[in-house]
Amino acid sequence: MMNFVPLALYGVALVAYVWHFAKRDAVVGRGATTALVFAAVAHTFVIGMQSMQYGYPPVAGPTSAISTFVWLLALAYLYTELTTDERAMGVFILPLLVALQMIPALNPGVEPQLPVLQSPLFGIHVSALLLAYASFALACVIGVTYVLLFKEIKAKHLGIFYARLPSLQMLDRMNQQAIVIGWIFLTAGMIVGAVWTPQARAYAPGIPQLQAMSLRDPKIFVALVCWTIYSFELFAARRIGWGGRRAAYLSAVGFAIVLLNFVPISYFLTRSHNF
Asked: How do the domains of the chain map onto residue ranges?
């Protein structure tokens, strides 16, 4: 039941951001930001209460991880909005927050966590990956807005996106910054996971999920594919000048794979990440 409160507040914020995007009313824009702040605070309270109730942060199971990811993405977007004073991207971010938050709202509770998962290394591993995914989600949305604005400018039909979005240069710079941050956290999370796995196997050799942790598992293989895509995007942006639309498209493709790994693979295909 607690997860419905953040969901409802995210829904209110979504309506406010849509209204602001349509009307460009400064008062409505401030109201949208305020609603999102209240939603993030309520979500923080829910995660804090769950951590106190169960004795560990709710990050291990797929449903708990989705809830924490939504919370981190909301915080990341709020930080971006407050530092750039741009609210136009809220109308693209909030639908993702609302859609994903429906999963923990409809499936409340926190999955039981085995003692082997209570290692600090495991907590760092999961937290780093969730922060990476939040950064990639932000980069994807920025990339989508870049393409929409670019198409308006190329068609010489300066309409709703030209009037409401930041410049192409700013969007490209924001996209690159989000990718760099996400790549750092993704790399750190994968390294820590590789260090933690043999320790966990030695601590609890009878757990089949630990024995299944290899590149043959879809969850781990797709995570490596994501790392390869974002590594190429960073290399291409710096060495062969792949910025702008190419970077925007790569950001969208990368996050589509992240979502594939984060939801259907986590629930139905993985043999190693379903404790």
From this structure: 1-113, 116-275
Q: Which residues contact 38 (CB under 8 A, 6 or more apart)?
A: 9
| Both structure tokens of 103 | 């999963």
**Residue 47: both structure tokens together:** 């995660």
Cα distance between residue 65 and residue 275, in whole Å? 13
Please report, for residues 45, 182, 251, the alpha-carbon distance to residue 177 in angstroms, rounded to integers and kept in the order given.
Answer: 29, 9, 12
C-beta of residue 12 within 8 angstroms of C-beta of residue 35: yes
pLDDT digit string, tens, across residues 24-66: 888 999 999 999 999 999 999 999 998 888 888 888 788 889 9
DSSP string, 27-82: HHHHHHHHHHHHHHHHHHHHHHHHHHHHSS-S-SSHHHHHHHHHHHHHHHHHHHHH
Look at 181 and 241; give whichever has higher pLDDT. Answer: 181
Helix then strand count (H, E) for the chain reads 11, 0
**Alpha carbons 62 and 224: distance in angstroms, whole number:** 19
For the chain, percent of residues with pLDDT exceeding 90: 63
Q: What is the pTM of this model?
A: 0.91
CA–CA separation, 230 and 218 (whole Å) = 18
How far apart are the C-alpha atoms of 188 and 11, rounded to whole Å? 33
State which H helix or E strand residue 204 sits in. none
Residue whose C-alpha is closest to residue 227's, from 185, 268, 267: 185
Report how far apart, in Å, the C-alpha atoms of 62 and of each of 41, 109, 162, 235 are: 22, 12, 38, 31
